[in-house]
Amino acid sequence: MRYYQLREDGTPRLAVQTADGLFDLTAAKDRLQTLEDLFCAADITDRSIDDVTDDLLEDAVPLDAEVADGDALAAPVSSEIWAAGVTYRISEEARQAESDTPDMYIDVYESDRPEVFFKATPERTVDPEEPVGIRADSEWDVPEPELGVVLSDGDIVGYTVGNDMSSRSIEGENPLYLPQAKVYDKCCSIGPCVRSADSIEDPHDLEMWMTISRDGEVLYDDATNTGKMVRSVEELVDCYTAHNAVPDVAVLLTGTSLVPDESFTLEEGDEIEIGLEGIGTLSNTVVEV
Amino acid sequence: MRYYQLREDGTPRLAVQTADGLFDLTAAKDRLQTLEDLFCAADITDRSIDDVTDDLLEDAVPLDAEVADGDALAAPVSSEIWAAGVTYRISEEARQAESDTPDMYIDVYESDRPEVFFKATPERTVDPEEPVGIRADSEWDVPEPELGVVLSDGDIVGYTVGNDMSSRSIEGENPLYLPQAKVYDKCCSIGPCVRSADSIEDPHDLEMWMTISRDGEVLYDDATNTGKMVRSVEELVDCYTAHNAVPDVAVLLTGTSLVPDESFTLEEGDEIEIGLEGIGTLSNTVVEV
Amino acid sequence: MRYYQLREDGTPRLAVQTADGLFDLTAAKDRLQTLEDLFCAADITDRSIDDVTDDLLEDAVPLDAEVADGDALAAPVSSEIWAAGVTYRISEEARQAESDTPDMYIDVYESDRPEVFFKATPERTVDPEEPVGIRADSEWDVPEPELGVVLSDGDIVGYTVGNDMSSRSIEGENPLYLPQAKVYDKCCSIGPCVRSADSIEDPHDLEMWMTISRDGEVLYDDATNTGKMVRSVEELVDCYTAHNAVPDVAVLLTGTSLVPDESFTLEEGDEIEIGLEGIGTLSNTVVEV
Amino acid sequence: MRYYQLREDGTPRLAVQTADGLFDLTAAKDRLQTLEDLFCAADITDRSIDDVTDDLLEDAVPLDAEVADGDALAAPVSSEIWAAGVTYRISEEARQAESDTPDMYIDVYESDRPEVFFKATPERTVDPEEPVGIRADSEWDVPEPELGVVLSDGDIVGYTVGNDMSSRSIEGENPLYLPQAKVYDKCCSIGPCVRSADSIEDPHDLEMWMTISRDGEVLYDDATNTGKMVRSVEELVDCYTAHNAVPDVAVLLTGTSLVPDESFTLEEGDEIEIGLEGIGTLSNTVVEV
């Protein structure tokens, strides 16, 4: 099942997309207003989120499917977001081009330890359809389309689409500037929904694509498959959660393989669409921050 | 003035140390329970925190000075913490010893852009007297004593003492692992108080010292002065706040210059004391996480 | 000055009406989002709310005056509401007509102790322009237009307009049913603004009027003056706050003198307008609950 | 099962008493910190609270039984509390003695509509072992021992013991003063636990007793049975929840039948113990407010 967080006039509502349509779960249970509420109830009762939802569908109210594309759509969870890097082969080459010290990227491949880093607070994460940011002091800015793993109490409960906005010029100048290239105003977006882990057959075999348009013209359009990851989702999650204080709900983005080439940089007003097979398409425009 | 956050049975109280003693400000105003409350009132009324406090002292209740050392002492603010690196000369040499790619550290000195990074969430920050963490998967762990700048609405309103716990073995293995070396369970502590910016004559001329003891024996004892910083506090704050979504209250640690040599690593039970002239002494024990 | 609480897409903003127009105070200070924030800052700094506001007007952003009438208008404070009864002569006669035991109402006049009662939680209080409720199990329902006193830390800081919805049939059946006649779903509304106490010359000399319309026809239209109160505002506040646990912000409605006669009862869809000289007009429709 | 809310250093923990002892449920599930959390998970998954708990007992940690009597004991829920009056025959006689207008009490018996009223906010409710209040402006003060019904989403999920503190002198002076006699600082206490509705065979057949001691001497000691109620628990709950905006969790006290005679009034320092068969004993001292 796919879960959408709606928010109208500030009031949150949880909706679920099943084979039969889109349903308002908050209408079935007043207390079920956010995906976090569902995660919490499922955790305490040791059930899967889809299992809990199944029992509620009878009382849920059908919604127009387009609600899930509209203004009311919010980020599916409001949580700390981490990300992994150097997890796809293609990304390695791109990074070599950008950095004067490429060896460290190659070393990450060859090491047992993945690269994971703090990516965003909820306040720095924008809703679907909202503008993501490019730093005014950066010259080379790209979106990084990524499969997002959604964790409840440290366990994988779902998947989402993530946009890990990055300043390649700042990161490329010095690897010690990576946090500035990654963590800034409006640096991340996730959505449009969370697909339950139970309903994803294999997270390591999902088509992923990205298009970037400017003034109606497509400037970038490419696709890959999460099967090209050189780390497993579980391995990345283990690295994030080990020795860490992981909040009840958290998101880990798993790295990118779709990278516009060096001649491209984002500009204000650009439109980014990131799609993941079986999950959905995350759309954002671009604003300078 | 120096502000202490007390917390007894979960109830917060704000105390202030003046030349005349320690006073309970919450006794003067019920609504003034945290330093954040004081920052907020001062911000909205465009006054300094000391100025607001001055008017409240008449109704504040004297407290035993030892309260500010006891169990009731909490981190002075509960906020996002960032840190800066490579800001003292001595630190550079230490880093060269630890890393196979030392050039990047030298580059930071020569660059206009400082190194700032996301250090800790409130949940990863421990109170004074509480144990800070060393990662079980790390072999070389050190505290980093630092001057902490306290920001309200992006402006410098005070200073505190910070312990930026670091795994030098993980950071040294690959600079891309820096976030794992820095952001983990119990990775930070600040305190014991916040000294108002107005009452610090020059933050760039403060004695700073650290002692580390094990089983009653002092293993490390050294001192420096914040005057040895090669960046100004304002410059580091500018770097943190630019293009960023800084919360109402935030802390920026300004880098370290006191580094135990390579033969030393922290162990469970060690006692760390970090002192800053005119502010106070932050004490923590060590626990493996 | 008159303070309006706006709420767009769930985000609160505080606006103030001065002689020069309507201004967005949140634009001047991010942290000043609600009237409660202003009360808090004024309380901690021992200043009046108008005094704090005066200093902020330079940075406040002008708003269209009609904003204060629109969808974005919220109840000016979100707090516990109490009300007083039997405070106007006219109300006494009306009550005698309704009750089989009228002596108790007369006794309230002759007693030192006023009648004050718990009226509404924030969850039972509706915003201006939103529908107030009439109980489905009640036959005789009326609005009670009242001057509302706004308290911060127990002190009078402003005035608002209140609608103390009442089931006269339930109250009339037995005085022990008073709480059921008074405290129920959507039983109260306050607004449209709070006028600062400093800018009200005499709360005991304010014209108060009410009109009730159905299908465009005015069914009730009458006026009175708060000067007809037989208790002072201070006396009623003292009665409410004595021996009580009054929250930081609270509202006390001071009783009614405008009562539709026995032949009138509210119906779904009716429109109620309650005006108070120098404060504003509170409008609500009616819905059965 | 019986649920205890513990709170140590401000951190809440939920414990359950089964036939096998007292167990820490928060140790089994981090997110299960309050009884409200359990109610919420049970509501969303349409299970009983005992059923959810059963599955968690395997991972729960045994606690010393005395924990449930100690300082860490908090009110079992933090919610709006309503109360019912005139629900026991004995109470009627007592009320006739106190009031000049006793007919209204008799009328309540003969009417379909029970008397229910707003009793307390969480801020006016004290924990077990904490002092309840008597108003300094009252001459005749008594505790009212009552069976408390605990509601989740309007449904009965458990029972607790309640102390509905009352000023009989203020109530007796005029029935319109009832709210002042009932709603004031520290006017209520509930606890020590909530017994699940599923494990109470018949709430209308529970022994209830109260003792009041002063300086070690028992001044009042009497017992009754909830079977002497003239209304059913369901009837009272229906009256409270109809046409009302009932919060997710709420408590309804069901009236008293144990009343010290007219010669007795509470004094500061008195100790009150209220017991209910199968639930527990709620102890409070007395303080003037």
UniProtKB/TrEMBL annotation, chains A, B, C, D:
Keyword terms, alphabetized: Hydrolase, Metal-binding
GO BP terms in the entry: small molecule metabolic process
UniProt keyword Ion transport, yes or no: no
Keyword Metal-binding in annotation: yes
InterPro entries from the UniProt entry: FAH, Fumarylacetoacetase-like_C, Fumarylacetoacetase_C_sf
Fumarylacetoacetase-like C-terminal domain sequence ranges: 81-287
Source organism superkingdom: Archaea
Entry's Gene Ontology molecular function annotations: hydrolase activity; metal ion binding
Family recorded in the similarity comment: Belongs to the FAH family.
Protein name (Swiss-Prot/TrEMBL): Fumarylacetoacetate hydrolase
